[in-house]
């Protein structure tokens, strides 16, 4: 009998040159570049280019890439009509799933419209798709898609708030997009690669990724973390409640990781941004509450915060509604998914694992009239 592991934990199921995750002595790298260096010095556009095209762009290439993304921001009228009829109480992740599928019918993949072009189009247009639907249904207005903002992060915040965004907020979101961009064979990326391995189209693979990321055990963890943190007004209040939750064996989202054993290398980076933004925010209790929950989880459960935990307060400080946290994850991870789709296609083999059968032993068929 083949060795069985829960959720494929610890099993190597393929090769990849895109990122290292949980490799001792390496930390998290994107195509060899440390996540700390990228978060400190790069922009999300540089990182997206790195993941999709294989190398960091030079100044001329980056300028051309950003110009390409500017020109790809507009939403087709037919897609706007779809966004307007999607119910207002729909989860934003379902909006993105539907919109991606619809865009695939309007702008299908072809020899002339290559996979990198689709990747760039989705990265460029997703902020507008999400916020066109959000503003239409929640603010009763049709937003105008502009090219005034020069980055994905600033474009998103401008469409959300309708005004020039705070530069500190822009950089915080930009760093979060870098941190969320890629993470090896996580659930959503693996789902995208499985779909790709059947020789399906690019959009179908991305829709598979969105569907997997929607779950609270994957992308939805940042929303769940925020819902917990905002319940408390003081660290002491959080201390009492979280200890009761642990006694009752309630799940505390945003802690631990299936791959990392000691710490999530992305967590300290985003925590720094949460602390920085807390100092200029009117909401003074959120960060101290988060720190207290972190201490309890470390002391009581020996668990560390993952990227999702402090991303929650960082996004909150930027005025981003909790329901849009996971869609922001999509905006970022589109770059990583695209890189994996391209890599899977370059050396493809159908991904088809086997199951360990636990059902009945062989038994005879009983005619319907003889069944009790």
Oligomeric state of the chains in view: single chain
What fraction of the residues are assigned to beta strands by DSSP? under 5%
**What distance lies between the first and last C-alpha atoms, to the nearest angstrom?**
36 Å
Major sheet attributes: 3 strands, antiparallel
In total, the number of strands is 3
- How many helices does DSSP assign? 16
Strand order of the largest sheet: 1-2-3
Q: What structural class should be given to the helix and strand makeup?
A: mainly alpha
Provide the gyration radius in Å: 22 Å
Order of H and E elements: EEEHHHHHHHHHHHHHHHH
Characterize the structure shown:
- It is built from 16 helices and three strands.
- Helix content is 56%, strand content 3%.
- By secondary structure, it is mainly α.
- The mean pLDDT is 93.
- α1 runs antiparallel to α8 (167-180), α9 (187-197) packs parallel to α16 and α12 (235-247) runs parallel beside α14.
- A hairpin with a 2-residue loop joins β2 and β3.
- It has a three-stranded antiparallel beta sheet.
- The chain has helices at 35-41, 44-53, 59-71, 77-85, 92-106, 115-138, 152-161, 167-180, 187-197, 202-213, 221-229, 235-247, 267-279, 286-301, 307-317, 325-346, and strands at 19-23, 27-30, 33-34.
